[in-house]
Specification:
The complex is a heterodimer of chains A (about 110) and B (about 120).
Chain A lengths: L1 E4 L3 E5 L4 E9 L5 E6 L6 E6 L3 E5 L2 E6 L4 E6 L8 E8 L6 E3 L3 E6 L1
Parallel strand pairs in A: 2-11
Antiparallel strand pairs in A: 1-3, 3-8, 4-5, 4-9, 6-7, 7-8, 9-10, 9-11
Chain B lengths: L3 E4 L2 E4 L4 E8 L5 E7 L6 E7 L2 E5 L6 E7 L2 E7 L7 E8 L11 E2 L3 E5 L1
Classes of the chains: A mainly beta (about 110), B mainly beta (about 120).
Chain lengths: ~110, ~120
Amino acid sequence: GQNIDQPTEMTATEGAIVQINCTYQTSGFNGLFWYQQHAGEAPTFLSYNVLDGLEEKGRFSSFLSRSKGYSYLLLKELQMKDSASYLCAVRDSGYSTLTFGKGTMLLVSP
Amino acid sequence: DTEVTQTPKHLVMGMTNKKSLKCEQHMGHRAMYWYKQKAKKPPELMFVYSYEKLSINESVPSRFSPECPNSSLLNLHLHALQPEDSALYLCASSQPMGTGETYEQYFGPGTRLTVT
């Protein structure tokens, strides 16, 4: 099984940088995904890590340490539209299935 | 085209009704998924189809019946649901393992289901 932990809520100011952490304990691992979900909408893919290190995509970066069971999503130059839930998801080693963490609700204020 | 479409967007049904949710994708993905999401909770996997065959059923009650008529379509047939089944039902698709680099799942906008 998978146990995935991330903070429930975070707040930040427009223009700032925020880091959302995710820790996991899994029986199998074949990649970690970050999704963004606005209220009432579908999750949208942000980033993917399967090897240790940092992946950068514009204002978003994601880091993975497999030995520590740890990942973070870094959001730079925050905008109001970044207010959303951020879901950390671990993929099982045998299948394409994802197990999602409970999500971190990020509120960006002016 | 990186879109997954779902119909209807909203559905209200009684506990004795039979209804179906539909999902379609034209990205050539051969894995399709049904998730259930309650308010302020993460998506929970219900079913996985790989190459049009049911590969995973996460102990979902039989009142939910999935169907994959072809590689682009996924249905979820609903019968005799309970009020606690009210939720957002999300469809997703991806390439199966071994066929692509990232295999990220693309989600549809969901069907908001209310059971009365």
